[in-house]
Amino acid sequence: DIQMTQSPPSLSASLGETISIECLASEGIYSNLAWYQQKPGKSPQLLIYGASSLQDGVPSRFSGSGSGTQFSLKISSMQPEDEADYFCQQSYKFPLTFGSGTKLEIK
Amino acid sequence: EVQLVESGGGLVKPGSSLKLSCVASGFTFSSYGMHWIRQAPKKGLEWIALIYYDSSNKYYADSVKGRFTISRDNSKNTLYLEMNSLRSEDTAMYYCAKAHLAYWGQGTLVTVSS
């Protein structure tokens, strides 16, 4: 199985700050990577697909980059509503696998 | 508007069975593959199964292979997950999701405990 190693496990950021979350795949997955946001008690919401394509309706302060084994999610100018858990996920091979998540909190 | 509504969760004893349903609306259900994904309490996400739009192919995570069966009824716009030989480690919120995981349901909670 492809292991997705996500870092950091938690992050505290000030409003307006730019943050990055990293995801490392155990083998090359080209651009078959997605990022999700999950708020408490809610189901995950797709933010980014194909490593860098923004899902419809997602604010442009979210962006994704990377290919192969190294990927990142960037949030430019942290907003209160961005406080959530974030997960990466590969869709290159079955079984689909997720990173362990990053808890993003407001400082 | 795409809607996915899961049901069928509950509290069951180890070794028992349960069948989850996911009713879809707002899109042509029969044209899309569908997934089940679960999340144990305060844990990460685990993909568990995929079924093609026409049921021609099914894929499972090793953790549920041989115990869980994914199926669908395109005439009823409904996805199913039949779960047998349930274990305590199957306790989780179970979500259905459309195709490339762009849309998820609200989840149904399965608790396996004696």
Q: Which keywords apply here?
A:
A: 107 residues, mainly beta, 7-stranded mixed sheet, 4-stranded antiparallel sheet, globular, B: 114 residues
Instruction: Bin the strand percentage of chain B.
Output: over 45%
User: Quick check: average pLDDT of chain B?
Assistant: 97
> Which chains make the largest contact?
A-B, 20 and 19 residues
Rounded Rg of chain A = 13 Å
Helix share, percent of chain A: under 10%
Tell me what the structure shows:
- The complex is a heterodimer of chains A (107) and B (114).
- Chain A contains no helices and eleven strands.
- Chain A is globular, with a radius of gyration of 13 Å.
- Helix content of chain A is 0%, strand content 50%.
- Chain A has 107 residues and is an all-beta fold.
- In chain A, a hairpin with a 6-residue loop joins strand 4 (33-38) and strand 5 (45-49).
- Chain A has strands at 4-7, 10-13, 19-25, 33-38, 45-49, 53-54, 62-67, 70-75, 84-90, 97-98, 102-106.
- In chain A, the strands form two sheets. In chain A, strands 2, 4, 5, 6, 9, 10 and 11 form a seven-stranded mixed sheet that branches. In chain A, strands 1-3-8-7 form a four-stranded antiparallel sheet, with no helix packed on it.
- Chain B is an all-beta fold.
- Chain B contains no helices and eleven strands.
- In chain B, the strands form two sheets. In chain B, strands 2, 4, 5, 6, 9, 10 and 11 form a seven-stranded mixed sheet that branches.
- Chain B starts with a strand and ends with a strand.
- The mean pLDDT of chain B is 97.
- The interface between A and B is medium-sized, with 20 and 19 residues.
Summarize, please.
The complex is a heterodimer of chains A (107) and B (114). With 107 residues, chain A is an all-beta fold. Chain A has strands spanning 4-7, 10-13, 19-25, 33-38, 45-49, 53-54, 62-67, 70-75, 84-90, 97-98, 102-106.
